[in-house]
Amino acid sequence: MATTLPSASLPLEETNIQAESQWATVLRRFMRHRMAMISAVVLVMIFTASFLAPFITPFGRDTIDLNNRFVLPFTPNSETGQMHWLGTDHLGRDYFTRLLYAGRISLTVALVSTLFATIIGLVLGVLAGYFGGWVDMLITRTLEFVATFPLFIILLILVTVLLENENLIPIPGFILSFVMWITAVTREREAQVIVLVTVVIALLFWTGTARLMRGMVLSVREQPYIESSRALGGSHTRVMTRHIFPNAFPPIIVDFTLGLNGILVLESSLSFLGFGIQDPIPTWGNMLAFAQSYMFQHPWMTVVAGLPILFTSLAINYMGDGLRDALDPRMKL
Predict the structure, then answer these.
(1) Which residues are CB-neighbours of 318 under 8 A, at least 6 positions away?
(2) Which of 42, 97, 115, 315 fits a disulfide with 59 by CB distance 3.0 to 4.6 angstroms?
């Protein structure tokens, strides 16, 4: 007598195995990229050190010690004997401590700005490409309008206006409290400055992601599987969340890493020029700006302040290259 084997669960199991194998393939490709792996380790170390600064260094972020001004690296404090690994600045503040807290703020601004800019660009790009018509025209014209301006100049103007008029945009207290916790700043005004700079950057630099997503959606919206989903009664929301957004994930990851690097350098440039977050709030940009004033008297300060930006930028670039290669289906296994 013939025996009928149950087969209802096979498609689901095969789908799970296939999904797992796809991500395993991506991970294997990424791990074969040596520079990407090294960069990932470097980034983990930088992020960990920056966000665990209170547990790494015995000095306070703004602790002033005028008896130990411009101390050279690897010199102990004359009073406590605690080591100043990277020396001190003009107020005797420990330079290593300041760099760690500066990294915490710079990386937070860059990450949050890039995240929100990516979300804005992702949503608007998908809406423009999927619906077309007047929706596409409205979003595309807005994108083109924003892109026609010299964004860096507009950014300088907006940041200057907002920072000088602190009550122009009210910020909820819970957001300020969260920012104070994540960045370890002690005053609400400092948290407000960080929020304003982050918001302005995010609102100006979403256009690249939107353009990328619009082009990708235009290329896939007429594919048979999209038409099949519509024919089966799938709503617009279901089609976008089940078929379009998953396909957008790989290029968005690469775009996010590239955007993160650009915004990190942008925030450092703002602070360096005196238009962004300023002392006593440390960022890598304003520390580098201050160090240039003592470039010839204390050259080590400029080198030490510039290295975190250099290493982080290079690491993000190499990791982005590794992710691009790992997520590219044309790459060999």
Answers:
(1) 35, 36, 38, 39
(2) 97
- What CA–CA distance (Å, rounded) separates 287 from 301? 9
8 A C-beta contact, residue 204 and residue 113 = no
Side-chain half-sphere of 202: how many Cα atoms within 13 Å?
A: 20
Tell me which residue of 254, 274, 253 sits closest to 197, measured CA to CA: 274
* Torsion-angle region of 5 (φ positive above 0: left; ψ -120 to 50: alpha; else: beta): beta
Could you check whether the bond before residue 150 is cis, i.e. omega within 30 degrees of 0?
A: no
316 confidence band (pLDDT: 50, 70, 90):
very high
Q: What is the pLDDT of residue 289?
A: 92
Burial (CB < 10 A; 0-12, 13-18, 19+), residue 7, is exposed
Whether residue 267 lies inside any domain: the answer is: yes
Q: Let me know: does 185 contact 104? Beta carbons within 8 Å.
A: no
Which CATH number do you get for residue 180? 1.10.3720.10
Sequence-ordered list of residues with C-beta below 8 angstroms from that of 149, at least 6 positions apart, any chain = none
Of 162, 135, 56, 167, the closest CA to residue 101 belongs to 56
Domain annotation covers residue 6:
no
Domain count for the chain, please give it: 1
**283 in any annotated domain:** yes
The range of the structural domain enclosing residue 293 comes to 36-65+94-327
What percentage of the chain exceeds 90 in pLDDT? 47
Asked if pLDDT for residue 243 goes beyond 90, the answer is: no
Average pLDDT on 278-287 reads: 91
In a domain, 10, yes or no: no
Other C-beta atoms closer than 10 Å to the C-beta of 327 total 18
Tell me the residue ranges of DSSP E strands in the chain: 75-76, 83-84
